Inverse folding.
């Protein structure tokens, strides 16, 4: 009897597990400030709710699960294309299926480097984007890692994955008594032949003693954002 009961219980549990795996798969947009990567995940709404420990809207099956440039996760009813446009892309974010995209070996050209220094009144700091156009030969070894396309950053950047095809790197992240300095990179593999990303340079200094902080606020803080595109050239 115990053997029969155990077998029946195992069968019931396997059936419930199978049922949990059936159902609509969630579409996800993984976004930086230069656009999004969109894909159909291999997870159901229930599985994401369990792993992300967050409230799920009633119509989540018809929404997009979004990771924004700051790493925040939430649901949105915006379409993948509109999200790509909102976050600095061209308004086109085709849904990829489960398989991993592999970048092509060969020459990659870093181009379209543009720095926005509009939030950096200190004009002399406008060139702090930290990126220049260049060509590099890459052998990826079957997986995407931004250090291979920026070999000069080896040992300088602490890279961590923010998605299946995206990385964030920290060069500097220091804060003392309210003053801070941060230098970060992002890199996202859009297709086997295109990589997009950005570097951010930000700091805020305490006002010198005896000076009105409000009077120097405009000159004591800076944020520059440098976007780039890397393209495979064969």
């Amino acid at each position: 009897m115990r053997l029969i009961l155990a077998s029946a219980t195992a069968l019931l549990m396997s059936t419930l597990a199978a049922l949990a795996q059936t159902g609509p798969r969630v579409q996800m947009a993984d976004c930086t400030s230069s656009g999004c990567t969109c894909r159909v995940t291999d997870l159901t709404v229930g599985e994401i709710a369990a792993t992300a420990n967050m409230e799920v809207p009633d119509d989540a099956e018809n929404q997009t699960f979004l990771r924004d440039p700051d790493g925040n996760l939430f649901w949105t009813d915006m379409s993948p294309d509109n999200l790509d446009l909102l976050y600095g892309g061209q308004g086109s974010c085709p849904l990829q299926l489960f398989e991993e995209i592999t970048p092509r070996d060969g020459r990659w050209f870093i181009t379209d480097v543009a720095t926005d220094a509009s939030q950096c009144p200190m004009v002399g700091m406008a060139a702090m984007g930290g990126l220049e156009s260049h060509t590099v030969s890459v052998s990826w070894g079957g997986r995407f890692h931004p250090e291979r396309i920026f070999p000069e950053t080896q040992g300088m950047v602490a890279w961590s994955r923010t998605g299946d095809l995206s990385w964030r790197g920290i060069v500097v992240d220091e804060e003392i008594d309210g003053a801070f300095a941060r230098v970060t990179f992002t890199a996202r593999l859009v297709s086997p032949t295109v990589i997009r990303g950005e570097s951010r340079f930000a700091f805020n200094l305490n006002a010198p003693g005896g000076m009105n902080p409000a009077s120097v606020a405009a000159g004591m803080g800076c944020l520059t954002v440098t976007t780039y595109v890397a393209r495979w050239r064969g």
